[in-house]
Structures are given as C-alpha cells and as structure tokens.
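User: I'm curious what two different proteins look like when written out as structure tokens. Can you demonstrate?

Assistant: Sure. I'll show them one after the other, since each token string lines up with its own sequence. Here's the first protein:
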Amino acid sequence: MTLYHGSNVQVDEIDLSKCRPYKDFGRGFYLTDIREQAMQMARRIARLYGGSPQVSAFSFDVSAFSSGDVRTLTFDKPGKDWALFVLNNRDKRFSDIGDTLCNQDNKYDIVSGPVANDDIAYLLRLFANRLIDIDALVSGLEYKSLTAQYSFHTERALKYLRCAEE
C-alpha cells in the first residue's frame, strides 16, 4: 500500500524525535493513503513554517496489522472510543497515560483511523468544554465521512515503511 506524508521538506528518513506530541493518535509520523490530502497538509505546513509543499511517498507493508510483531490499533469509523482516544492524546493535562484510550506512551506502534478534521474538532471542543455529552458527540460523529490517517510511533513500526518512488 502506498502512503503519503505532506510537509514543507522532502522526507527521505523518518526521525520520530522531530514529531510533535499531542496529535490525534499521539506523537508519531502521520501519513494518508490519499495523495491530495497529503498535498493539502503540505501546503498548510509550508504556509505556517516556510519552505515549499512536499509530498513524500512510502510503501507500507500491511502485514504489520497481522504479524503480531507490532502493537496496532485501528478505528474503522469515528465513535466514542475514537473520540476519547483523540481527546486524550491531544490533552496536555491528561494524566492516565496507561489508559488503553491514550497513546502518549506509544503503547501502540501503529494506529490507523479517521482524521479529526476541523468539523470534528469543533464537536470535540464542545465535548471537552462540557457543552455536549458523550452521547451528543457520538451522535454528531455518526454521519461524518472522514479520510484515513496512519500514524507510526516506534522504530519497530517504521520497519514496515519504505521510501517509494512516485
């Protein structure tokens, strides 16, 4: 499977120490299977930090999900567990790091699931600010059509990624 990473620089070698914390699935290297989505992210990053939009392609060995070699977590669609996982990973004050719905400690090597886009982020903020309850949040997520993201959190996970030519 080909995955794409959008940035303001070409990525030939992945350095997990350069990845920012408090992202949807925790600190990690994020990719998508949609090239245009990666290009949109690249444009956004280049606007914020300078440089020019770059999309790097990687070949992903999907046997990672069944190998037993790495700990994986997959969310097929947005729901309660996905929302709590995203909220817990984004929250700098979240302290129950051992919780299975948190990856701030990289307990999962690879996580895949929906992107929390701006529309979803609004619902998550309403819930985090206690303006809606979990049932209203889940109801609001029910009919959302979201794109997928794949995040790689450990060196063990990176063994399943290789730079690819486009």
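Here's a second, unrelated protein for contrast:
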Amino acid sequence: MNIALLSHDRKKELIVQFCIAYCGILSRHSLVATNITGRLIREATGLPITLYLTAAQGGTQQIGSRIAYNEIDLVLFFCDPDFEDGADSVNELSRLCDRYSVPFASNIATAEVLIQGLKRGDLGWRDIVNPKK
C-alpha cells in the first residue's frame, strides 16, 4: 500500500513518535511525505520515504494529485486544530480522500485505528481498487 504522511509543525514530533512505534508495519509499505515531515521520520526510523515539496511549496497539492490518480491508499495527516491557516490543506485532502474512498486520519487516535486495521489486513480492499502492477 502507498501511505502518505503529513503533519502540521506542532504535530511533527507526534508523527515521528508514531512512526517509530509502528516502524515494523510501515516498513512493509511504500511511504510518501511532504519534505520536512518525511525527512524527520526518515532520520528517526530509517524508513525509505519518497519526499515531495514542503507544504508551503506545494507538497500537499502533490500528494492530493496522487490521491486523485488513485496512487495513495492511506493518508495520515496529523493536524494542529489551533493552526487556522492549515485548515484549508486539511479540508482539501480530506475532501479528496472522501471522493476517492481513501482512508484518512487527522489525529493520532484515528491513525492508531487505521494502522492496526492495516496490520490485520482490513484495508486489503484497497488492493482491488489499486492493484499492484
């Protein structure tokens, strides 16, 4: 599965800790991330991550286009609800995930449920929607 990892600045440490905790599960999948978040996760975990631009330079839009082309199977976007300027990017990715039936977590609680479901194989239906070539 192709998993996108994003976070607002005040949630970067949390997503890094999450990825450390679930490194074993994440290592079995292809990971993409916005630049700063991805570099921090890669440095902490050693996981291979395809990096896109920073969010400010359009990385969120790059990931959004991959969702629209059915190239992303799961999005974990650790959002800071107090960061009002970031609401547009969260809403846009959430809307795209709804449109293309891509599981989306905007907080650690939902991310935990999705990662456990991924471990159990509950997201296997995405392989039907997005078959491996």
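A detail about the second structure: The chain is about 50% helix and 15% strand.
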